[in-house]
Design brief:
25% helix, Metallo-beta-lactamase, Chain A, seven-stranded mixed sheet, 7 helices, four-stranded mixed sheet, alpha+beta
């Protein structure tokens, strides 16, 4: 099964020379396999109690989490990692055992994927962060992609105009996620599926190239 434990928050306030993000946390997604319990990202400290309470309502406790997949190392995505003390942390090209301190670093993502549960595919989606990765999980014949910060509804609706802009690499990763996914769980904001998926996908394909001169 797959369940969003916490929907990511990202509320921006703009000032003359800077902008502030408040409320801020990544989404937290639970994947339950027969042999493992997995979290994708662990959110901000502000939401720790809520995350643990919701997990408990699903009969999951910190000791029961076997893997944490971090899409990237921005603080709003990783600050609760250490709570899940039995977990192996999967990020970039490495698997770090939080309990023993052992870290296996692989030369490429394909080798790493051989050492994680076979139901999960960890794949590169750079652009927001150099080593940004996304998680693909197929459940009941539906392809779910937990997309970290590569897919954001507000950035798509603004056609790429954001505080940091959208690079060609970011855009290519976003298109790749829409190609692989039936349902997208973004790092911030609501689940993208059904009519919303089709609407946002259309903006990505049809409007971004026109505005940015990017090739579709």
């Amino acid at each position: 099964m797959i369940k969003v434990i916490l929907e990511g928050k990202h509320t921006n306030t703009y000032f003359d020379e800077y902008y502030r993000i408040e409320d801020l946390t990544s989404s937290v997604t639970l994947i339950k396999l027969k042999q493992a319990n997995i979290l994708v990202d662990t959110g901000s400290l502000t939401y720790r109690e809520q995350i643990l309470k919701t997990l408990q309502e699903n009969n999951i406790y910190p000791k029961d989490i076997n893997y944490i997949f971090n899409t990237h190392f921005h603080l709003d995505h990783v600050l609760n990692n250490s709570v899940f003390f039995n977990a192996k942390q999967v990020s970039a090209h490495a698997i770090f055992d939080l309990k023993t301190g052992k870290c296996d670093i692989y030369s490429n993502i394909n080798l790493l994927n051989e050492h994680i549960p076979s139901e999960i595919k960890f794949f590169p989606t750079p652009g927001h962060f150099k080593d940004h990765k996304s998680v693909l999980y197929k459940y009941n014949n539906i392809n779910y992609v937990i997309a970290g910060d590569i897919v954001r509804e507000d950035i798509i609706r603004n056609k790429g105009f954001s505080a940091n802009g959208v690079s060609q690499q970011f855009y290519d990763s976003m298109k790749l996620i829409f190609k692989k996914a039936d349902v997208i769980i973004p790092g911030h904001g609501r689940i993208i599926k059904g009519k919303l998926f089709n609407e946002l996908h259309s903006i990505v394909i049809n409007d971004f190239p026109l505005i940015h001169g990017l090739k579709s």
